[in-house]
Amino acid sequence: MIRIVRTEWALFLREPGMVAFAVFFPTALLLVLGAVPALRTPDPNFGDQRFIDAYVSTLVVIALAFLGLNRLPATVATYREKGVLRRFSTTPVHPARLLVAQVVVNLIAGVLSIGLLMVVCKAVFDIDLPHHPLGFAAAFLLGLLSLSALGLLIAAWAPTARSAGGWATAVFMLVMFFGGAYLPRFLMPDFLVRVGEHLPPGVGALQEAWLGAAPSPVHLGILAVTALAAGTVAAKSFRWE
């Protein structure tokens, strides 16, 4: 298992575009937004906080969404289309380990991405780190697992790598919209804000933990149920060939 993870991690690092978006893009976007003076000024719309303080949770959503819905479905679907999974099935190593390795690679890349984001948050803009570290870690892990499970579900159902990319892009855009990446959440109707808080990867739970409150058990529960349900369906319906 360790050998497979190492190999998959090496393959991940060989794709500069993937690494740039998954690991560095959230931090780069923070630096761009932070360069605008108005976004570094306290605003009543954010409870007298700065825009960049309130937007950090959305940057986490961007990182998790890219890993779970862009990288993972395309990689797994390509492996199946090229016969990699079929060849794995002829060895003592079960092909499912290759899928587990994809989730582990996502976890490693996600930790690096959020770790870099936190360093820049504190060092450059003096943004407080998560006030509820354990709650944030739980929300981050469940958010990543839920999106990765949805990515595996897409890879399981899509007939080709091309169609997997198309389906994943549609879900990715929805996640980004409800996560506040396209339109700041304070400009969205309350109904859409509430819906977005409960959808994976749990921007509501991430923001609560970052600002100091323990994440809502309801938010975490929805993420856990989504990860379990999507992962189970993906495992039962996955076609190795």
Automatic annotation (TrEMBL):
<feature type="transmembrane region" description="Helical">
    <location>
        <begin position="18"/>
        <end position="39"/>
    </location>
</feature>
<feature type="transmembrane region" description="Helical">
    <location>
        <begin position="164"/>
        <end position="184"/>
    </location>
</feature>
<dbReference type="Pfam" id="PF01061">
    <property type="entry name" value="ABC2_membrane"/>
</dbReference>
<feature type="domain" description="ABC-2 type transporter transmembrane">
    <location>
        <begin position="4"/>
        <end position="193"/>
    </location>
</feature>
<dbReference type="GO" id="GO:0140359">
    <property type="term" value="F:ABC-type transporter activity"/>
</dbReference>
<dbReference type="InterPro" id="IPR013525">
    <property type="entry name" value="ABC2_TM"/>
</dbReference>
<keyword id="KW-0472">Membrane</keyword>
<dbReference type="GO" id="GO:0016020">
    <property type="term" value="C:membrane"/>
</dbReference>
<keyword id="KW-1133">Transmembrane helix</keyword>
<feature type="transmembrane region" description="Helical">
    <location>
        <begin position="51"/>
        <end position="69"/>
    </location>
</feature>
<feature type="transmembrane region" description="Helical">
    <location>
        <begin position="133"/>
        <end position="158"/>
    </location>
</feature>
<protein>
    <submittedName>
        <fullName>ABC-2 type transport system permease protein</fullName>
    </submittedName>
</protein>
<feature type="transmembrane region" description="Helical">
    <location>
        <begin position="99"/>
        <end position="121"/>
    </location>
</feature>
<dbReference type="InterPro" id="IPR052902">
    <property type="entry name" value="ABC-2_transporter"/>
</dbReference>
<keyword id="KW-0812">Transmembrane</keyword>
